[in-house]
Amino acid sequence: MTCKFIMGMRYKLVSPPGVSFEHAPPANTNLDGVTIEIEDGIVEFTFEKPYESVEEARRVVSDIVEKWQVSHGLTYNGETLDFEYITDIIEDLCSDKQRTSGQDVTVGLNLLNEVATINSVNVQVQRGSYSLPDIAMTVTHEVKMLYERYCGYLQGRESLQSFGYFTLDHLETTASKAEENTKKRRAAARIYKIDFEDLKELGRLTSMGGPESARKAYKDGEYVELTDAERMWVKKLMPLLIKQVAYYHGNLDQDFEMITIESI
Questions:
Q1: Do 121 and 18 share a structural domain?
Q2: 99 lies in the same domain as 147
Q3: Which residue spans within the chain are E strands per DSSP?
C-alpha cells in the first residue's frame, strides 16, 4: 500500500535581470486542478489530485510553468521567468504527517535573458504585482514555435518584417485549411478573432523595408523603410497575434475576445 503522496511543490521565482517583485503583494490562481500561490518570491503549487510519483507531479508543474513563461514573455516583451525547485510537499497518509524533501532544479525556457541597461548602468524595474499564468491560453507546439520566432526577433536574429510576415503567413495557411472556401486572410481573421484590417495592414508593412530588413527584393529596385510609428505598430501587434493563437487552442468553441490594434 502506498502511504506517501505528493500533495504539492514549492519553487522560488527567479526574476528576470533588472526586474524586481520585491513589493508585489501575494497572488493566487487555479489552473487545471492546481492551486498556485505566490508570496515573497516563493511559488507553491498545491494539487487537487495527489500524485504517487515525483516525476508525474513535476510534469504537471512543468506544463504550468511553460504556460506561465510564454504568457509573461508575450506580455512583457520577451522577459524570461525561471523557477528554482525547492521541495516537494509530501503527505504520509499512514502516519498522518506532512514532510518536505527536495533538491535544486531550475525550470525555464531560457529563450530570452537580457539585462536592461542604460549607458552601462543596470536599471531596476519594480513590478507592483506578480504576473500569473494566463489560464485561457494553451501552449501548443505551434504557439511555442511562434514564441521562439518572437524571441529570435527580440534577440536580433531575425528582422521584424521577416518575423511578422512568417507569422501572418502561418496563420493564414493554417486557417485556410480549416476554411477551404474562404480567402485565407479572412479565414485567419475569423478563426483567430483578429481584425481583418489589422492583418491587411500587417501584410502591407511586412512587405516593406530597406535592403537589410525587407523580406523580399522590390522589382523596381526601390526600398521603402518603415517609419518609427509603423515599426512600433507591428511590434505591438505581433505578441497579440501569438496570444490569439494560444487562446484559440484553449477555447476551440471560440469563447475568447476579438482583438484590434486599437484595443492595446
A1: yes
A2: no
A3: 4-14, 19-20, 27-31, 34-39, 42-51, 82-92, 97-101, 105-107, 117-118, 121-122, 125-126
